[in-house]
Amino acid sequence: MRRALIALGIGLGVFASAVVCQPAQAADAATVPLARTTAAAQEVARFWLADDGANLKRATPYAVLTSVGGERLGTGIVPDGKPVLIAPRPGSAAPQGGMPTTSGKVFFIGDDLQPHWCSGTAVQSRYRNVVATAGHCLLDVQAPMGPLAKWVFVPGYSDGAAPFGLYVGKQGIAPYAFDDIRDFDGDYAFVNVYEGVALSAPDVLTDVGKLADNVGGQGLAFNEPLASTVDVFGYPAGPNPDGSSPYTGETLERSTGPAYAVNLTGRRMDRPVGVDSPFTGEGSLGSPWLIRYADDSGAGYVNGVTIGVADTDGDGRYDTGVSPYFDSEAYGIYRYAEATWTGRVV
After folding, report:
1. What is the 3-state secondary structure (H, E, C) of 110-167?
2. Residue 16 to residues 86, 126, 335, 341, Cα–Cα distance (Å)
3. pLDDT for 41-80, tens place per residue?
4. Could you read off the pLDDT of 107-154 as tens digits, one per residue?
5. pLDDT at residue 248 is higher than 90
6. Percent of the chain beyond pLDDT 90?
7. Which is it for the CA torsion 291, 297, 298, 299, positive or negative?
8. Pick from 4, 20, 247: nearest CA to 12
9. Domain ranges within the chain, ordered by starting residue
10. Across-strand partners of 173?
11. Strand partners, 72
């Protein structure tokens, strides 16, 4: 039996206090409860920040469903609606070296009861409180589907440090079909986080403000043609099939290449998208795919998230990142998340 998930029919006119269903435009979503009370959120924050971030430091890259078999196709993908662009939001922190301040690591406790991390990014939203990542970096696909425990986001993470604060997840929103039948076309999630916190003294939490106010929020793009240039930002850490390990997962990495349709084996997907990227899978799950990215502003439009990687030419090294196509359903899922208020931990 699945753990507590609430299936919602959500339309595009959704507010924090009520769900307004519009069947003609409805998207089936699963609301995934995380730390639903401030007391629970405080306990989660202290777990990760205590002892100079000891649990953050001992976390390992998530190694669940990282690689797929696949081949590149010469065809495009037909959108199921009109293109939609959500403009990015600048934050108070300036990008350095062309790298976005919005990117960071998602931390959680896995099915093995050990701390792990994926990649993620802050995105624009009404209450400046939404993180985009892979669906299976929110939902535990190794158990009866339910939330991964003690879920937090740390933008700009480095060696136990949370330079812009730590943001505890309150709830996640993902496609119901991913929760219910493991349809990987819905392997993405938007997570609402509380305002950030830091430890000002042992066991004393201090509020540091809203996520997107601090680091900005990337824009989003739905029903777009496959882009000729996609920038992927993440923390890859795992090995290639040939055993080489080009990444450590300690620093934010960037790859740039075109997007294309792919045919996959081993995943239930109707419209997977590939991008030229040498990232390995462990650690890079949840990496945002940005189109129209500008180095000077550190901003672009999220048009996908990495849910796996593939070696399409058989040379023993990964060359392709894989994402669901961001269509009208993804827009509906995002619209519910972006209109959800969270509040403070302290």
Report:
1. CCCCCEEEEEEEEECCCCCCEEEEEHHHCECCCCCCCECEEEEEEECCECCECCCCEE
2. 19, 10, 11, 6
3. 999 999 999 999 999 999 999 999 999 998 999 888 999 9
4. 999 999 999 999 999 999 999 999 999 999 999 998 776 899 999 999
5. yes
6. 79
7. negative
8. 20
9. 6-338
10. 31, 190
11. 262
Could you tell me the pTM of the whole model?
A: 0.90
Token pair listed for 214: 């601090």
Q: How far apart are CA 280 and CA 240, in angstroms?
A: 6
Which residue type sits at 30? A
Kindly report the average pLDDT of the chain as a whole number: 89
Q: CA-CA distance, 222 to 325, in Å (whole number)?
A: 8
Which residues, 6+ apart, have CB-to-CB distance to 200 below 8 Å? 206
The answer on pLDDT for 164 being more than 50 is yes
Q: Classify residue 42 by its DSSP letter.
A: H
Q: Is 335 exposed, middle or buried (0-12, 13-18, 19+ CB in 10 A)?
A: buried
* Residue 70: burial class (beta carbons within 10 Å; 0-12, 13-18, 19+): buried
Residue 70 forms beta bridges with which residues?
A: 264
Look-up of token digits 């939330």? 147
Q: Going by DSSP bridges, is the β-strand pair 299-305/219-222 parallel, antiparallel, or unpaired?
A: parallel
Of the candidates 149, 150, 196, the residue with the CA atom closest to the CA atom of residue 43:
150
